[in-house]
Q: What sequence folds into this?
């Protein structure tokens, strides 16, 4: 029961953040204002980081603990954490940036 709920929750998180990553990627490419372009890229990084962390949790928790799965899960966790940290940092930077009007 608990595993089914956890699996459903992680799948929902992965799908929502996948949609957010694609959405903010398109918004980033269409934007001409540097501040708004940076904010969209930061939001995309945050979504991608959360998605990679959720995928890593699926790899580590849902399947048998083979060495290869644990290593791949750990690498994805590190990349996800880096993306999440970089996105939060860049969002703060671009949020404080003055608009060029």
A:
């Amino acid at each position: 029961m608990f595993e089914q709920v956890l699996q459903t929750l992680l799948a929902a998180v992965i799908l929502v953040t996948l949609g957010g990553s694609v959405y903010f990627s398109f918004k980033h490419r269409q934007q001409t204002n540097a501040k708004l372009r940076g904010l969209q890229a930061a939001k995309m990084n945050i979504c991608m980081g959360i998605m990679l962390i959720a995928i890593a949790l699926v790899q580590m928790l849902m399947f048998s603990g083979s060495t290869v799965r644990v290593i791949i899960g750990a690498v994805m966790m590190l990349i996800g954490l880096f993306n999440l940290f970089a996105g939060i940092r860049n969002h703060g930077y671009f949020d404080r940036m003055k608009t060029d009007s």
